[in-house]
Amino acid sequence: MATAHTAAQTREQLVAAAREIAPAIAERAADCETQRRLPAETIVDFRRAGLLRALVAPAYGGYGLEIGTVIETSREIARACGSSGWCLAICTLHTDLASGFPQAARDEIFAERPDPVICGVFMPSGTATRASDGWRLTGAWNFASTCDHADFGLFAAVINDPREGDPPVASFALRRDQFSIVDNWHTAGLCGTGSKQVVINDAVIADSHVMAVVPGTVRAGGGDRRDDGRLSAGLPGSSVATLGLAGVAMGIALGALDRFEQRLKGKLREGSFKDNDRQVAAQLRFSESASEVDVAELLVLRDLDEMTADTLAGRRSNEQQRARYRRDAAWAIQACARATARLQPAAGAGSIMLADPLQRAVRDAQTISAHVVADLDGGHEAWARAPGAPRRRPPQLGTCAATGDEGSAS
Could you tell me if residue 141 is inside a domain? Predict the structure, then answer.
């Protein structure tokens, strides 16, 4: 089934496409939160704009772009609606993960369209047992974002009685008709992500639809890192999973800054009767928050560019780099949550009303900051303990492929 976009797109074109559909996403933001799932029209918009095929191999009709594309497209969507930005990032990253499965699974997942909606949970919340016809998978997985719209799902499970050569944990690719959904998604923030529970009861999974999960490796599964035209191929999976969600936090914070700036320009501060030119305290909050978001974006994009350059040069990231990526992703998300929360005390009483997008941004940002990828204490500890020294400043953007600096060492 063909979608509207057939020609290759650049990163800049996809970001522009995301920016173009953002106003329509913003109009649906309140309904998205009320429905506790993305409106169907938003999935249609994602596909028409080509956003879901950003990381898919060109052989399947995708664009094979660098991983930084996810940061920038989800940033633009989250600026309009945090839940929609989260779902875009998750679904795009899942197409990248699905591309690491054996070819038979890839052929099925991308057979109908280059932009399937793929949900997934990578906390091993189920068990898999070998059988004569492959594997038997059973379990219940919480936090399956966008599962209501999913065409496929990827779920991690512990291997029961592993044989020699079996991994202790693996991910399994399933069709939508192989799992059911339990509506347990009632939350304070990111309400519209529809991150419900998926239940699987003794599903039969072929060997071709299994990908090993091996901590510390670049990518397990599939057994090959083929040249399939994807700039994201071969990147460290754990780093992609953490840094890949930071754009959502940036977008939420930027949307809050947009709304705060509009209010700052047009509001007469009640009680003090100060016009916008004399609201120095509010201006300071605005500037400090904007600075934090700018730094977060620079930090994350630097790391992603370094990862891509290393992979294209045939260098595998070392443990210290991966720890830095984890730390930087957590710091960026926490910084964006702080930046968003800082604005509300100066935004006036109207910002507590449910109809005001600023209060939704505060709740969404706080919810992201509770995600495991935003565990800053764990990130600091991992980086401080990582082998390899002396720790020096990592390479500048755009130089890591050529300089051979320590940050790109194998």
Answer: yes
